[in-house]
């Protein structure tokens, strides 16, 4: 059976494995826009770089990743002057197999040290490759994050990406569910081509969702094969032993990416790592702390209720985030937008994180349009629309959060909130 045919077969028969796809629903989704497939441009040859994306490594380095169909040198040449000869750096090349699919050559090069808030020009692989450019994040405030979850590759996705491209963002944060390939590996290639115009210009920092698992009982036992191969994040630099959870500092913000679909209990490696990572935060250096997960800990939508990735992970880790005075927790998974007040253990608490669910990037499954009623007091705003968010951290004390709804394919600012960092609140000192 062809790979695409096998993938469709697996998706259609996934109900046989109760919960194995991780996205089985008990509610009726509204009509969704179908997937589209981004073909490789005809002017590319087998050595041409494609699916280029960048990610931050440490505070002054960047990982550049790209794919070629044939074996080519994993070399980046970069400079601050367009058209000029630059510094050349060589990295590594890998590939992966998934059933009958074999990926292209996945190249990764880490370049730096780089200057903050600076445009760099670069070529992937050879002098004949097109010149691309990216801008490094600032070294200090202000910094603007684009935040979007559950992207997929539909017309809604395209609309969301267009709106993000129009914003003045420094870095994109994605709390899981990237391509919605769901076993059909060529859809990972399509997704890479779709996001390249943005992901090659600003760092994309991601964590995994349930659609990245791609484990098939008895047939393909390894989890996150494509995700780990294609979207390598800087986990080693933060002392993590897994690409599924890590942290990094940027411009006065400590960002933590957690893994909802790997062990998270009190005896797990992730729990021990998180506990140690939170203990190392220097609030003088990074007065803001932001956490991303995929499965939300707070959710009044009828979708994804009662899942262990939400309930058990919250029971295991919520106290750690509360004691460390995390400012904001972003989640995906639920295909709608919802913003909570500062909450801990189900109750309003002025020293707890603000929880925001933003799994509304544009997936093929449609929106989760039904909410539980009556609405809980801790839920302040909820709407089932596609869109994206922006977190503009102005200084060590103040930040503006806005959610931009895709209304009739136009970006509409539908929700906004000024935040004050907990590190600046005298009543919210970090608990040991």
UniProtKB/TrEMBL annotation:
<dbReference type="InterPro" id="IPR039331">
    <property type="entry name" value="PAPs-like"/>
</dbReference>
<comment type="similarity">
    <text>Belongs to the metallophosphoesterase superfamily. Purple acid phosphatase family.</text>
</comment>
<dbReference type="Pfam" id="PF14008">
    <property type="entry name" value="Metallophos_C"/>
</dbReference>
<dbReference type="InterPro" id="IPR025733">
    <property type="entry name" value="PAPs_C"/>
</dbReference>
<protein>
    <recommendedName>
        <fullName>Purple acid phosphatase</fullName>
        <ecNumber>3.1.3.2</ecNumber>
    </recommendedName>
</protein>
<keyword id="KW-0862">Zinc</keyword>
<dbReference type="Pfam" id="PF00149">
    <property type="entry name" value="Metallophos"/>
</dbReference>
<feature type="domain" description="Purple acid phosphatase N-terminal">
    <location>
        <begin position="49"/>
        <end position="136"/>
    </location>
</feature>
<feature type="domain" description="Calcineurin-like phosphoesterase">
    <location>
        <begin position="144"/>
        <end position="337"/>
    </location>
</feature>
<dbReference type="GO" id="GO:0046872">
    <property type="term" value="F:metal ion binding"/>
</dbReference>
<dbReference type="InterPro" id="IPR008963">
    <property type="entry name" value="Purple_acid_Pase-like_N"/>
</dbReference>
<keyword id="KW-0378">Hydrolase</keyword>
<feature type="domain" description="Purple acid phosphatase C-terminal">
    <location>
        <begin position="352"/>
        <end position="411"/>
    </location>
</feature>
<dbReference type="InterPro" id="IPR015914">
    <property type="entry name" value="PAPs_N"/>
</dbReference>
<feature type="signal peptide">
    <location>
        <begin position="1"/>
        <end position="16"/>
    </location>
</feature>
<dbReference type="InterPro" id="IPR004843">
    <property type="entry name" value="Calcineurin-like_PHP"/>
</dbReference>
<keyword id="KW-0325">Glycoprotein</keyword>
<dbReference type="InterPro" id="IPR029052">
    <property type="entry name" value="Metallo-depent_PP-like"/>
</dbReference>
<dbReference type="Pfam" id="PF16656">
    <property type="entry name" value="Pur_ac_phosph_N"/>
</dbReference>
<keyword id="KW-0732">Signal</keyword>
<dbReference type="GO" id="GO:0003993">
    <property type="term" value="F:acid phosphatase activity"/>
</dbReference>
<dbReference type="InterPro" id="IPR041792">
    <property type="entry name" value="MPP_PAP"/>
</dbReference>
